Amino acid sequence: MCVSAFVIELDRARSGNTLSWAYVFEWPILGAYAIYMWRKLLRSDVDEARPLPTPSQDERDALASYNLYLDEAHRHDATPPTGG
Fold it and tell me: Which residues contact 1 (CB under 8 A, 6 or more apart)?
């Protein structure tokens, strides 16, 4: 699509439309960026397929402690306020 737009804009620029000269340079850049992003997205799928490293005992303990903290913090959210 970008190649065909480039050819059309090049033809228009040669015919005297000076604004089309900007598009003559813009379409190839846009096409190159689209190819770059497409390849990057394909590679990210490969990176996600790698197994995650197993956490150490210290990391598991820290996560358990944090989860206890969250449970305590949200316990007060569950009780409705009294008074009024």
Answer: 31
Rounded distance between C-alpha atoms, residue 24 and residue 35, angstroms: 18
Q: Tell me which DSSP letter residue 53 carries.
A: P
The model's pLDDT over 30-48, given as tens digits with 9 standing for 90+, comes to 999 999 999 988 887 666 6
Q: Residue 37: how many CA atoms within 13 Å on its side-chain side?
A: 6
- CA-to-CA distance for 58 and 73, rounded, in angstroms? 23
pLDDT band of residue 49 (cuts 50, 70, 90) is low
Q: Minimal CA–CA distance to 31: which of 61, 59, 9? A: 9
Q: At what angle do helices 20-48 and 2-14 cross, to 10 degrees?
A: 170
The C-alpha atoms of residue 69 and residue 57 are separated, in whole angstroms, by 18
